[in-house]
Every structure is written in structure tokens, then in C-alpha cells.
């Protein structure tokens, strides 16, 4: 009943990406439409651990699909944010690159949903915005994508994700973001001077 993505086993090979992507969408729908299902079946803790594992080590396409599933699951039980998710956000942002982009997506998704208060508390601790701004520094670099795909992607993709997440945080957590407005504006002004067409 739980499926391969609600109770992951690290020793098993990766599931078929298309099947895994569809299963993640089903989990997102179930957590969103039937929040008591996860609570009643006591699967929240193993499910969040499995989803965090997908966010840390899955294919980039699966990682993106896991973001709304994490947000929907945390909405069923806000205490899930405090245990594995909060620490993984900070750890993921400190890695940089594609991993940071995924965790910034988690932050933005959580801030758009019912977990906005928890995200606001994390912003209020003071480390999060500096870490996001550090990621949004040089859009001209490229780096290898983590995992099995050995291709390069431009850091401007990461910068764009970071700026969009900051926009979401400013709109959804205005009181907590008040002290970060000047650094965000300064970074935005630096990035306005960057011309992506001339760097190609």
C-alpha cells in the first residue's frame, strides 16, 4: 500500500524514473486531498524520510517532483518541518549548485502553503537569507549536475531559482524578511547589470 517512494530502501536500485515521477504525483495528490490518510496510517515519519532521501540523491526530475510532495506532507503535520526538513534545508543550501536549487524550491513551496509560519521562523533565525543570497552570486559560471547525469548547466538557472524563492519569501513572510530587503535589493541591482545574451 505504501509504494516504493513512501518507504525507500537505499540498497534497492533506482525505480523507473517515469513510474517514480507518477508515484510522487499520486503521493502529492493524496497528501493534499486526503490529509487524514497519512495521519491515520502513521506513515508520515517514514514518508518524509523517504522524500528527503529523494531530494538529496534522486535524479533532478524526480527531485523536482518530490518538492510538492514534501510540502503537501508537511502540511498534514507541521511538526515534520522541525525534525528532518529544517536541518536538511540548511545542509542542502550549504552544498550549493543543483542541490541548493532543489532545497530553495522546497523553501518556496513550503512558504506558499500552510507551512509559511514554520518557514518564517527559519527565516527569523537569520541564516537562511544569507545562504540564499550567496547562491545567487555569479550567473556566468557552469557546473556539473549531481547524480548520474554528467552534463553542465548554467548557474543562472540556480540564480533564477534563488531570486524567485526570495520573492516568495518577501511576499509570504514580510515581517521576517524586513531586515533582508537591503541585501536583496543590492544583489538584484548587481544581477540587473548582468546580460545573459552577451555571456553566451
Helical residue percent band: 55-70%
Q: Return Rg in Å.
A: 17 Å
Order of helices and strands: HHHHHHHHEEHHH
Number of helices: 11
Can you tell me about this structure?
The protein has 200 residues and is an all-alpha fold. It contains eleven helices and two strands, in the order H-H-H-H-H-H-H-H-E-E-H-H-H. A two-stranded antiparallel sheet has the order 1-2. The radius of gyration is 17 Å and the shape is globular.
SSE layout:
Layout: H1 17-33, H2 35-40, H3 44-57, H4 60-76, H5 79-95, H6 97-112, H7 116-124, H8 128-135, E1 142-144, E2 152-154, H9 155-172, H10 174-177, H11 181-192
Antiparallel strand pairs: 1-2
Short description:
This protein is 69% helix and 3% strand. With 200 residues, the protein is mainly alpha-helical.
Keywords:
200 residues, mainly alpha, two-stranded antiparallel ribbon, 11 helices, 3% strand, disordered N terminus
Amino acid at each position: 500500500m505504501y509504494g516504493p517512494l513512501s518507504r525507500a530502501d537505499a540498497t534497492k536500485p533506482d525505480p523507473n524514473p517515469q513510474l517514480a515521477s507518477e508515484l510522487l504525483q499520486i503521493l502529492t495528490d493524496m497528501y493534499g486531498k486526503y490529509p487524514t490518510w497519512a495521519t491515520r496510517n502513521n506513515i508520515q515519519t517514514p514518508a518524509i524520510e523517504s522524500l528527503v532521501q529523494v531530494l538529496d540523491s534522486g535524479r533532478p526530475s524526480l527531485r523536482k517532483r518530490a518538492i510538492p510532495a514534501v510540502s503537501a506532507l508537511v502540511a498534514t503535520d507541521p511538526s515534520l518541518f522541525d525534525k528532518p526538513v529544517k536541518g536538511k534545508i540548511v545542509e542542502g543550501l550549504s552544498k550549493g549548485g543543483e542541490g541548493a536549487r532543489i532545497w530553495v524550491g522546497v523553501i518556496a513551496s513550503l512558504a506558499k502553503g500552510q507551512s509559511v509560519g514554520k518557514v518564517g521562523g527559519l527565516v527569523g533565525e537569520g541564516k537562511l537569507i544569507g545562504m540564499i543570497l550567496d547562491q545567487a552570486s555569479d550567473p556566468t559560471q557552469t557546473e556539473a549536475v549531481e547524480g548520474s547525469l554528467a552534463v553542465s548547466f548554467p548557474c543562472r538557472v540556480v540564480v533564477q531559482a534563488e531570486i524567485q524563492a526570495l520573492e516568495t519569501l518577501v511576499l509570504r513572510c514580510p515581517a521576517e524578511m524586513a531586515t533582508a530587503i537591503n541585501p536583496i535589493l543590492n544583489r538584484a541591482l548587481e544581477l540587473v547589470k548582468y546580460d545573459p545574451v552577451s555571456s553566451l
